[in-house]
Amino acid sequence: SEIIKLINVKKVYRVGSVETVALKGVSMSISKGDLLSIMGPSGSGKTTLLNMIGLLDKPTEGNILVEGVDVTRLTSDQIADIRNRKIGFVFQQFNLINRLTVLENIELPLIARGVPRNIRVKKAVEALRLAGGDESWLRKRPSQLSGGQQQRVAIARALVGSPELILADEPTGNLDRKSARLVVETFLKLNESGIAVCVVTHDPEIANCTRKVFIIRDGSIMSVEEPDKDKCIL
Ligand code: ADP
Ligand code: ADP
């Protein structure tokens, strides 16, 4: 069953009098348990597409359906509520807050939902374990951890609210091969537990670990390819 469906989504950025057509009318859907990747050259619209799927920005034209409901008709608060319940995000730069501890970073999505502290801590510890992290990190600041460790904390934060879908934008772009492998292993494990995963990547060795590769060029999906499993980083 479908989690999210994009119908003819067009995105135009306007900066002053300059218009950039970042997406030309993209249709795609993500179903429960999917494991997808999006590849394409720099500037082709990958991040914009991920932002549309993640309900982080509104399309200029077209529709985005979540469980059949057209979110383009909802208010920003209603969209934020759907996003917080259904989607976890992982970014290339980790996007952790360094004045907070690792525990506080992971708890953040639950604070936004008003979950009581004892439950937040329990869920944060569990999420960090699922993401391949260690409890000894909980009281540290993100900057005291390696890049690979910080990305595992970021994955824990993405996981903590029990999302149906994890969206990752170049999650291994700043990592060495060993850490990249750990991130991919974690995504596959989460996928096996039923969470849909969609990864934007430049790295064919990452895309080849997924089950479907969307190739995007110049704001359009050019093709959808089968991965070459023998060329997965694992
Ligand atoms: P990719 O992730 O494939 O590098 P992006 O989705 O970031 O591509 O960008 C697609 C196009 O849209 C590019 O031409 C980029 O410069 C432009 N773009 C992206 N975000 C913005 C923005 N916030 N304002 C103006 N132009 C943007
Ligand atoms: P990526 O790693 O996906 O290529 P970018 O460097 O293209 O990321 O974009 C980083 C951020 O800058 C994004 O939030 C994007 O929307 C924004 N951005 C990209 N291109 C432009 C642009 N031409 N004008 C304004 N903002 C942009």
TrEMBL record:
Recorded GO terms, molecular function? ATP binding; ATP hydrolysis activity; transmembrane transporter activity
Superkingdom field = Archaea
A Pfam family that the UniProt record links to this protein: ABC_tran
* Domain ABC transporter, first and last residues per copy: 4-234
Q: Which GO terms describe its cellular component?
A: membrane protein complex; plasma membrane
What are the protein's UniProt keywords?
Answer: ATP-binding, Nucleotide-binding, Transport
Q: Under what name is this protein listed? A: ABC transporter related protein
Its lineage reads:
Archaea, Thermoproteota, Thermoprotei, Desulfurococcales, Desulfurococcaceae
